[in-house]
Design a protein that fits this description.
Layout lengths: L1 H12 L18 H6 L8 E7 L5 H14 L3 E7 L17 H17 L2 E5 L7 E2 L9 E19 L20 E10 L5 E2 L6 E2 L9 E20 L14 E2 L5 H19 L7 E6 L12 E4 L3 H9 L14 E2 L2 H33 L3 E4 L15 H6 L3 E7 L17 H9 L6 E6 L8 H13 L4 E9 L28 H14 L3 E2 L3 E4 L23 E4 L1 H7 L1 E3 L2 E3 L5 E2 L1 E3 L8 H12 L3 E3 L12 H16 L9 E4 L2 E4 L4 H7 L6 E4 L7 E7 L4 E7 L5 E7 L4 E7 L4 E4 L4 E3 L2 E8 L4 E9 L5 E3 L9 E3 L5 E5 L3 E7 L5 E5 L6 E2 L4 E4 L9 E4 L11 H4 L4 E10 L8 E6 L2 E3 L1 E6 L2 E6 L5 E3 L7 E10 L3 H9 L13 E3 L3 E2 L9 E4 L2 E10 L3
């Protein structure tokens, strides 16, 4: 059993020394090896730097920045916000962007410049965009309705009732909203109740109604409903501002309101910092759009320019159709659908053009970038009216988000809080390098270590993310105590975390992954068009049953298709070189006419278009004419292709296909999966992503399970030798065992729970002299020496049969390898002073701290050191031996020293490390420092009615704001073991 266990994790921790040292590149464009060894700032994480209730301390700001720099982060985003603070723990700080706040911001920016860090800045205290400087005229608005019945004929001269508006709407002394304007006054024949049969019969009375609402109208004979629509400031304010920073949110659809807001902030920043382009302030940040729709108050989000802009963009006046938004129905359902399509698309256009693009233009004019979550989450959580890809494409840095252990499912069971693939698609189709993500958002306070976060990180990386922004890292003045003040959600990446001194290897892991996944372009085979409608969002990465596993994809929109997509060598290509084999239409019968015309042009150049034949256009203006043009063009492009008996039609050099699976189409083109695997482990479940440079192919492979797995992985690459790039250590391994197969290049891998690896194809593969290796040896246990010989590392003795090409099998005898040494008790565990635990405790055997009968140990949170000594016999030391210390189970991070020499920090399984350089024959002195979470100490303090309290925070609940600390389960902590020393052997095989 010990051999089987050893073999399972040997390959995951075994790394051959690099033949050459890697030195960080001096310029901003490091080589692939240099950037992997020491990732540049662009690949390193950022964090939301939460200033709770607006509080800050200059000395602590400096310490925060120095610590973030030391641990490998590249920047912080100042995030002024209020506290969820039921006990009133957090004092009120200064008003955001008031004089004191601006001085603190300027101090942080100057210190960041000294440290070569980047600073971002939120554009309001909390969200949405807004502040005390926003007047009702520039604030968020809705349209509200009132109606009366009028019987004609008569001369009607009355003041129409003012519609009810939200109670929080700012009011003038007369009780009316401080800002309001007439949208329309419409007379609707009442013969059919609320159903409208003839929109031409609706009379627009807007110009007969004065500003006070008094209508002068000679009503014709019949029963009429007079509908008054008024745009008014809703009074909606910032969601969770610091106490002195509340204010109205802006009208996101009005470029004037956006300009007022951004210019106000930039002017104040310039007064403190001067030319912003010469500072460490690099970008402004807009959080996700989370403005109320007001549908429950019989209102809709609105902007005063909407009617005018609708007319310009859609080609007709929307006024006669507005009753459809207020409870009236259309006898012709298609007419309603077409108008609603136009209305929602107009809202999308206005927020993209008037908010995101306007804000970006202002930022860029002052040397800043704009970063935003402009892709949702949408309904049922938020009323996001935009077409997400176009909104994200309008930014400098698009940002998504993902959570730990929290889902918000839509009606189809899709987690709308996992916003990664959408952001990646937007970045790919609009030619942007960075795919940023608000990362690890959580309501599990001080519960999780880095390894708990790793599977989320790897899933996000496989979805296309290539920069992490931690949500959140609170700034805590000294008065906050430990763990300190916090915004009510977050992973709490800051200097107060118990494991903060040990966090750098995890940060380096994320940075190395992001560096490689920022290289070149995304490699995908399929481009899905997601329609022209708004709102519109991209689902999280998933396997399309028509496509199957092993192929990756992007989702594209109308704008990028029309302006950025072309064809080269029968592949659809974007200007930066990203390309696809197939363009796939959604299962809809409507289509944008301009898009269909573009598809014809692409097909004639050689593109393959897959999807149903459209039958009509979308939108209401000139619908019959455009429907006829769509049908005429579709008949030409699809001809007899009906998806049932005829499945394709040629068009120039390309094809239109309907009714066949995408996988079959690709296989017909001679294109197999980009990545595939087989495994003897039933639980094996892998994910991947592929990036391409002009010379290199970079694959990231992730084990989605919590099991050790072995898999034979095939990559659709031929003629290049695979290398293993290990993001946890930065080491590069040239492997010997791989085969050229029908699907590409096949190699075998062993991965630990939630393990991950990069497989990089760079150099041309020479002749593979090795036909196969025994099943006990996987590719990652091999390397090619400079002289061409094969080296294998193994923990198993016995006989191995090696099969070189064109030669008889060669049997290799591995002499006995010494047995593992169990490092048993007693263990001396030393605890720091001042945190409730005894200075020294003897553990006869390794146990979780929470199993201790001593409360000070049971509830301890912090870093404790384990001390022990053990003997290593002389015969364990040989030139071809490597010694590995295996700690077994650890909660949560271990820092290993042997004989006074620091060996390294372990934060994920296998908690195993090479100690050959420090080990010595005879007695060896071992010290293992273990860091856990704050959770247990918070529980102990909550349960203690009279004893000392060691922690302080405004956070009174541990999990999802449902578990008070005193009811929170304790978390296993400490060195759990068993601890063993293993020996492995390096075998060199001469195959000449």
């Amino acid at each position: 059993m010990r051999h089987q266990f050893w073999l399972l994790f040997l390959s995951a921790i075994f790394t051959f020394p690099l033949s050459t040292s890697l030195i960080a590149a001096a310029d901003s464009h490091p080589t692939l090896e240099d950037g992997f060894s020491n990732p540049p700032a662009i690949a390193r994480p950022h964090a939301y730097w939460v200033w709770v209730n607006g509080n800050s301390d200059p000395a602590q700001l400096t310490r925060d920045l120095e610590e973030m720099k030391d641990k490998g982060l590249a920047g912080l985003e100042i995030f002024d916000i209020g506290a969820k603070d039921p006990l009133g723990v957090v004092p009120e700080g200064p008003a955001f962007f008031g004089p004191e706040s601006l001085k603190a911001i300027a101090h942080a920016v100057r210190e960041a410049s000294r440290l070569d860090l980047e600073i971002g800045l939120i554009t309001s205290s909390s969200w949405n965009a807004g502040g005390p400087w926003i007047t009702p005229e520039a604030a968020a608005k809705g349209v509200f309705s009132s109606q009366i019945k009028v019987k004609g004929p008569q001369h009607f001269s009355q003041t129409l009732p003012f519609p009810p508006v939200p109670q929080k709407s700012p009011k003038d002394p007369d009780g009316l909203p401080a800002y309001h304007s007439t949208v329309a006054v419409l007379a609707i024949p009442d013969a059919s109740g609320s159903q409208i049969t003839d929109f031409n019969s609706i009379v627009d009375l807007t110009d007969r109604c004065d500003p006070s609402g008094r209508l002068q109208w000679d009503a014709p004979e019949g029963d009429w409903i007079v509908l008054r629509l008024v745009c008014a400031c809703t009074g909606e304010k910032l969601v969770l501002p610091s106490p002195k920073s509340d204010g109205l949110i802006i009208d996101h659809f009005d470029p004037g309101a956006t300009a007022l807001h951004f210019n106000t902030m930039i002017e104040r920043l310039q007064n403190e910092l001067g030319d912003l382009s010469r500072t460490a302030l690099k970008y402004l940040y807009l959080p996700s759009y989370e403005v109320t729709s007001y549908e429950k108050e019989k209102g809709l989000v609105w902007t005063p320019r909407l009617r005018e802009e609708f007319h310009k963009k859609r080609g007709y006046d929307p006024a006669p159709y507005l009753p459809l938004l207020f409870g009236f129905t259309a006898a012709d359902r298609e007419m309603y659908d077409r108008f609603l399509f136009d209305f929602q698309l107009t809202l999308s256009d206005l927020i993209i053009e008037g908010h995101y693009r306007k804000a970006r233009q202002i930022c860029n004019d002052h040397g800043l970038l704009l970063c935003s979550e402009a892709g949702g989450p949408g309904q049922p959580l938020h009323n996001c009216p935009f077409e997400a890809l176009r909104a994200l494409g309008s930014l400098d840095v698009p940002r998504g988000e993902f959570w730990y252990d929290h889902q918000r499912l839509d009606e189809n069971g899709v987690d709308i809080l996992w916003l990664v693939k959408e952001i990646a698609c937007a970045s790919h189709i609009y030619g942007k390098t960075i795919v940023d993500g608000e990362a690890f958002t959580s309501w599990h306070h001080w519960q999780n270590g880095p390894f708990v976060l790793k599977p989320l990180a790897d899933r996000a990386l496989c979805g296309g993310l290539n920069r992490f922004t931690f949500h959140t890292g609170a700034h805590n003045p000294p008065a906050a105590g430990m763990p300190g003040w916090a915004y009510h959600a977050g992973t709490h990446i800051n200097v107060n975390r118990v494991w903060w001194p040990k966090i750098k290897p995890f940060i380096d892991y994320l940075s190395r992954c992001c560096f490689l996944l920022q290289q070149g372009t995304f490699a995908g085979d399929v481009c899905y068009y997601y329609g022209d409608q708004a709102p519109n969002f991209v689902k999280p990465k998933h396997v399309d049953p028509s496509l199957g596993f092993g192929f990756d994809y992007d989702v594209i929109n109308t704008e990028a298709t029309l302006t950025r997509l072309d064809v080269q060598n029968e592949r659809l290509v974007l200007p930066d070189g990203t390309s696809y084999e197939l363009y796939v239409l959604p299962e809809r019968d409507d289509i944008n006419l301009s898009l269909l015309q573009k598809l014809e042009a692409l097909a004639r150049k050689g593109a393959t278009i897959v999807g149903p034949k459209p039958a009509r256009s979308n939108g209401l203006h000139n619908a019959r004419q455009r429907d006829a043009e769509v049908r005429r063009l579709a008949d030409r492009l699809w001809e007899k292709c009906d998806g049932k008996t005829v499945f394709e039609n040629r068009c120039g050099q390309g094809r239109f296909i309907w009714g066949r699976t995408l996988r079959d189409i690709l296989q017909e083109k001679g294109i197999g999966p980009d990545f595939s695997f087989t495994s003897p482990n039933e639980s094996c479940d892998l994910d991947f992503i592929h990036r391409k440079t002009q010379q290199d192919d970079i694959y990231f492979v992730s084990n989605k399970t919590m099991d050790w797995i072995e898999a034979h992985c095939t990559f659709r690459i031929t003629g290049k030798a695979p290398e293993l790039w290990k993001p946890d250590t930065g080491e590069i391994q040239k492997i010997a065992l791989f085969e050229t197969t029908e699907g590409g290049t096949t190699l075998s891998l062993r991965l630990p729970p939630a393990g991950s690896i990069f497989v990089v194809f760079r150099q041309q593969a020479g002749e593979n002299r090795y036909a196969s290796l025994p099943s006990e040896i996987t590719s990652d246990q091999t390397r090619i020496l400079d002289d061409g010989r094969l080296e294998i590392q193994t923990g198993r003795s016995g006989e191995i049969t090696f099969n070189p090409k064109n030669r008889s099998p060669q049997k290799i005898s591995i002499p006995p390898i010494p047995d593992p040494i169990l490092i048993g008790g007693p263990w001396e565990v030393r605890f720091p002073e001042g945190w409730g635990a005894p200075p020294v405790v003897q553990f006869p055997n390794l146990i979780s701290w929470i199993q201790s009968s001593e409360d000070g140990v049971k509830y301890f949170s912090g870093i404790a050191s384990y001390h022990n000594h053990f003997e290593i016999p002389l015969d364990y030391f040989a030139a071809d031996h490597r010694l590995y210390l295996d700690l077994g189970a650890v909660r949560d991070i271990a820092d290993v020293s042997l004989n006074g020499q620091g060996i390294g920090i372990l934060w994920k399984p296998p908690f195993c490390i090479d100690v050959t350089s420090a080990a010595q024959p005879g007695v060896n002195r071992l010290i293992v420092e273990i860091a856990n979470q704050w959770s247990n100490r918070m529980v102990g303090d909550a349960l203690s009615s009279s004893g000392p309290k060691y922690t302080s925070s405004n956070i009174t609940y541990s999990i999802m704001w449902q578990r008070p600390w005193k009811e929170t389960p304790l978390q296993d902590s400490g060195l759990l073991g068993p601890v063993r020393l293993h020996v492995s052997k390096n075998i060199v095989i001469n195959t000449e």
